[in-house]
Structure formats: structure tokens, C-alpha cells
Amino acid sequence: MALLQITEPGQSAAPHQHRLAVGIDLGTTHSLVASVRSGTAVALPDVAGRALLPSVVHYQADGEIDVGWDARSNAAKDPRNTIVSVKRFMGRGIADIADAKTMPYEFIESPGMVKLKTVVGELSPVEVSAEILKVLRLRAEESLGGELSGAVITVPAYFDDAQRQATKDAARLAGLSVLRLLNEPTAAAIAYGLDNASEGIYCVYDLGGGTFDFSILRLTRGVFEVLATSGDSALGGDDFDQAIFNWLTESLKLDALTVEDRRLLLTEARLAKERLTDDAVTEISCSLLNHSTVSAILSREMFIELTKPLLGKTFGPVRRALRDADLQVEDVQGVVLVGGATRMPHLRVAVTDFFYREPLTNLDPDKVVALGAAIQANALVGNRGGDELLLLDVIPLSLGIETMGGLSEKIIPRNVTIPSARAQDFTTFKDGQTAMSFHVVQGERELVSECRSLARFDLRGIPPMVAGAARIRVTFQVDADGLLSVSAREQTTGHESQITVKPSYGLTDTEITGMLSAGIANAEHDKNMRALREAQVDARRLLDATEAAMAESGHELLSKLEWNEIWSQIYELAELLIMGDANSLESLRQCTETLNAVTTTFASRRMDESINKALSGRQIESINI
Amino acid sequence: MNHLTDTNYFELFGLVPRFKIDLNSLDLTFRQLQAEAHPDRHTSHTQAEQLFALQQSTIINDGYQMLRNPSSRAQCLINLAGKAESAPALSAKFLMAQMEWREAIEDACAARDVLALEALSKRLKHRINVQVQELASDLDEHSDFESADLRVNELRFYEKLRIEIDDALDRLGS
Hints:
The structure holds two protein chains of two kinds.
Chain A: E1 21-26, E2 30-37, E3 40-43, E4 53-54, E5 56-59, E6 65-67, H1 69-73, E7 82-84, E8 106-108, E9 115-118, E10 121-123, H2 125-144, E11 150-155, H3 161-173, E12 178-183, H4 184-196, E13 200-207, E14 212-220, E15 223-232, H5 237-251, H6 259-275, E16 281-287, E17 293-299, H7 300-324, E18 334-338, H8 345-355, H9 368-380, E19 390-392, E20 399-403, E21 407-412, E22 420-426, E23 436-442, E24 452-459, E25 472-478, E26 484-490, E27 496-500, H10 509-517, H11 523-557, H12 560-579, H13 585-598, H14 600-624
Parallel strand pairs in A: 1-11, 11-12, 13-18, 15-19
Antiparallel strand pairs in A: 1-2, 2-3, 2-4, 5-6, 5-7, 8-9, 9-10, 13-14, 14-15, 16-17, 20-21, 20-23, 22-25, 23-24, 25-26, 26-27
Chain B: H1 9-12, H2 23-37, H3 47-68, H4 70-80, H5 92-110, H6 114-141, H7 145-171
Helix pairs in contact in B: 2-3, 3-4, 4-6, 4-7, 5-6, 5-7, 6-7
């Protein structure tokens, strides 16, 4: 009988097979993928041995899509169809993109997020990003030899909800299961901290291609505690290229440039910036489309002068994070530099002067983020060695609710450790008011119009009372992924309304499914098969987890009766799983749900047990001190 | 701001309910508790366990913050003693001083005077330290909860001033 195929309690789940998990740094200029192999995080190279993949996607008229090095070398030839730095457009409207006018793209305003008009049609930044992620997924699967269990994808700490959601959508579109979106500076700190066994207060100064992030962490024996984070999501290395570009066009009076010329000059500007890392003076020379030549000499002094305001702009967020964490510069044990732009010598001098210490640069600033993400991915899929790491992250931006007069009332302030939950009571404005509208916003500003709108929802059925008499409690819960759910409840009647916030700019589920199934003839059947496979994976996972829990503490924490009840449900679900019938989707889901339900009390006791264990261990220690 | 449970946070962190606590020991216990409860430690467990992990981890984070911050720690003690009254009246003298602080901040902002704001911030930090010492004496030495209640209320005003100064410095890009 089928039941005999189930392993003995305690033998199946406990030592997991090694699951394939990767960390992906989806950067503005470069992207890369890394994984933990025999205990060490390594970047996975392409067939030519290169770890970095330029974040450039070239769409051709015949439908061919080039990603990476080839696409980048075509950027100047076909600028309109070669999307560079797409990360800057993720979750953004045209109004958010400061230099949209000088870019070689044709932007189309569409609800929530801009689209780009190309030779293959209008594209969402999410679709463009997905092309980059697909290349990295294939690279990882070939290199690791199997399907991936999941990926940790890094985002700038200062990304708001819309930008995070867009990143998640891109991953889904690329066929990746996202274990976690991890903040880039935190990822860098993990890679750096584990590599050097560091303890104490560390800062991460991360100037990427398009974003600046600054985070302060406390490192204590494998625990990475983020104390404060700040940044500027519209400031990056690209702006330093732009400064050179502006200097060129102004000093040489270059106007009426074609888009091709612009792209060419921007590339020349970037190369000049990179050369100035080693050279005191550099020559810029190239010929434009109309065969006129551009020639200029740029000294490092001039470059420093041109970019002084940009560099200065990074220290505002640095000071703010220090204030938020209530720390002085002297408290900092080390500053880790991340991002290619931190190679600029005058930036290193400025950081050294600010912190009175040389920054740490012994890990490759281009790779350190992906390596940290790979370590976190390895821990999250439960691979061996992962339990040495614990990450306590914060929310980067305050979450609030709109009140009378268009003001934002902050419910969860920025830099609060997640998961977190807070509640606030509100009341009615008019006599007999029976409904209330809630507007959830994100940001530090007092005026709602200057914050980012996340969601709106209504609470109806409030019993009519005089103004100010009703008590409506609004609760915000942010989980370990940083995702927010909000509920509102009238206290006297218990009437409730609840939503999980999903920003309106993200793609809808239907849009994603549409993109996924485009070209697949039998989309409906395919969808059902996928649902069944997902249900089977869920059931399998629950069985493994329950068996392991039973073996670990079932005898201690359960009565004979409870023990039997859980086992009979385990057998029932296992039998259903082995039958493997496509019709069993509903019963499979139901049976999984039942096993979840009968183990609830057990789970709660296990949690209490582990908390008590941690605490009693602690008390003995404090007595010894 | 309402916190979500009536958990006795001193008990949760294995501490004797006093105002003066060993912050290093609090930090250590916090990390040990999260090492058990954090949702990331339960990713391969049942859904029910993941939910409990989320709840416990949330409570631990909340409790840690409540105990780490002097005004909320004092409030916890006052609540535990069952002595929380409706907010006691602030003296006219205190309110006058508040207005003077506010004016000084506004003046410094208008003049975009970063140094003046930093000086105010230092003075305020000193004022907060004094207030915290007085609070400690009220609670730990005299068990004078009525006086402590008033001082907590005043301390909250100082904390708000501090946020105002920080935000002002932030706006001046410094």
C-alpha cells in the first residue's frame, strides 16, 4: 500500500538535500549572479569567464534580443532600441525621471510606470529587467546543474514599495522564485562581515550607477542588525558621467545633438571618468554623426570641481543615518565601499576625511552585493551552514495614513526593525458617519501630496454615532519581507476591513499571467498544471516540516491523543500526494489546510518552548556575569 | 501610538522591572530571542509555525524598542504599577520653555544656521539626560509614579523637539 512509501518519522526531512539558491545583484550598470558552493559564496561567470553582465538590453526588429556585452557595444548605433540603466525607470512615472528629456528613449506615460517605445513595441521597464534576469537564471542553472529553488534579489535600500514591487514582478516574469528582496548595503555588509568575522558598528557607503544608499549596521556573532538606513534613489555614478557630458556640451557649444551623438558622448564621458581613476589628465576625442570631431582635455582637478556638488549630496543622508541611529562618527569601526563609482579617488578621500579612517575595499565593490545575497539565499532555503546568519533589517521609509487636511500621520516610522506592527485610533468627522476612507502613504514629508501613495481602502458599516465617538483602530503590520498589510476595525462593533498593500503601479496578476503565457497555445491547461505542481510542492514541504517537528519535540509537547491526530492527518495527506491525480487539486489544498490546522497548537507550543529556551539560557548567563 | 500586546516586556526579556536596566544585557537577550523567533529561522517549517514566528518576532522587536527608549520604558513601569492616569497637566513654566525652544529652532532654520541647530541639539540632549536621571530617581528610589508620569509626559515633548531639530538639519542638507 502507498502508505509504506513514507519514510520513518524523523528520517526524511531533517537533513535536507542541498537546495540550489542564488543571489542576484540587478544593478543599474551591471548585474551578476552568485551562489554558495562548498561553503563559500562565488560569482558565477559566463562561458567567456566574465562575472559581470552589463545591464543593457538591445531589441532588434526581427525579435532577436541581445543582453549584456554585445548589447552594450551597440548602444551608440541603435540608442532608441538599446535600453541602458533600465533600473532608473522601475516603478517610476515620467515626472520622477529628472533627465528624461536628454535621454535617447521615447517614453510613454502609462498608469503607474513609464513605458519605452521600441522597434518591437511598447515595453515596460519590468519586461526589460526580466530579460536581464532570464540570462542570469539560465547561467546559474547551467553552472549549478539544476532548477533553482529560489533567488534573493538585491534592491537599493532606499527603493520604495513601487520600485520593490516592480523588481519582484520582473523576477516572476523571468521564472524566478523570489525568496527575499534584500537591501544592497545589507547584502554587502553580510559578505564583508562573514568574510572578515567583524564585530561592532559598520557603515556601508554604496554609490551604484543610479542610486545612493547608506546603512549603519551592528555586527555581533553572525547577527546583522541594521540600525539606520538612508539614501537618495536618484543619485548615482551615472550622474558623474552626465556632469562630464554637460561640461563637454557647454564648453564646446555642442547643440542639436542627435540621440546617437548623445549616447556616444555619454559613453565617452563614462570612459573618461574611469580613466581619471588612474590618470591625472585624460583626452576625450570622438567623431559625431555629421563627421565633426569632438576633442577635449579633462584634468582630474576639473572633474573634481565639476562633481563636487554631487559628492557633497551624498553626505546629507550619511549625517541623517548617524542621527537616526544616535551615533557619532567616532563610534564607527569601519566603512565598506560598494559600487563601481566608489573607485573614484576623490570620493575615497572625501569618505576618509568624513569618518577619519580609510574605507574598507578588500572585497570587489562590483561583486560584494551579489555575494552577500547568495549567502542570505543559502540560509533562507535552509541549507547547512545557513543557521549562523541572522539578519534584522529595518523599513527605509515611514508608513502612514492620510488625515484631515492632507497630512500624513506616521504609523510606523522609518528605521524600525521588521517584522513590526503598530496601531493607531482614529475617529469620525461628522455626526452619523458610517464609512471611512483610508489612504496609505510612504515617505517622510508631512504633506500627503509629497509622499508616495500606496493604497486606498474603505471601512463601511460603522454604526451611526455623534462625530468623534467612534473608535476605529488602524493596524499596520510589516512582515520580514517589508511587505505591508493594513486593517481597520471599528472597536465597538468589531466591524473589520483589511487589505494587503500592493501598489497600483505594479503590474496586475492578469498582466503577468498574460506575459507569461504569451505564445503558449494551451495557456489554461498550463495554468492548471502549474497550480497543481505548486499545491504538491506546498504539501510536500508541509509534510517534511511536520515530520521533522514531530521527531524533534512531538513526544515532549503532545498528548497521546494529539500525537495520533496529527499522524493520521500526515498519512492522509501523504496518500493523496502519492496518488498524484490532476483532479485532486482541490482536495490536495484542503487536506494541506487541515494538516496546517491540526498542527496549530503544536506550532504555538514549539514557539513558546524555543523562546523559553533562549531566555533561560540567557538568565543562567547573566547570573554568571 | 498603540502597541499591540499587553505582554510584560520586562518578563519577556528576563529583566527585573526597574528603570535602570543593563542595556548591554538587553541587547544580548534581544539577539538571542530573535535567533529563535525570527521568521527567517522558520522558512522550512509549517505555515502555522511561520505565523507564530512572525507574531513572536514582532512582539520581541516592539518590546526591545519599548525598553530601550527611556520614556516608553518608564511608561511600561507606570502601567505595570497600575498608576497610569490621564495625561497630567504640564506647568505653565514648562510650556513657556517649550515655546522658547520652538522659536529658537525656527529662527535657526530661517537663518539656515546649521551651527546654531547643532548647538540646540547638544543643549537638548543634555536636557534629556537630566530628565532621564530625575525619572530614574522617581521610579527606582521613591516609587513616585505620579511625578514620573509628569516627567514622562515632559520627556515626550523633548523627544519631539529632537525630531524637529533632526528634520531641520536634514532639510538644510546637513
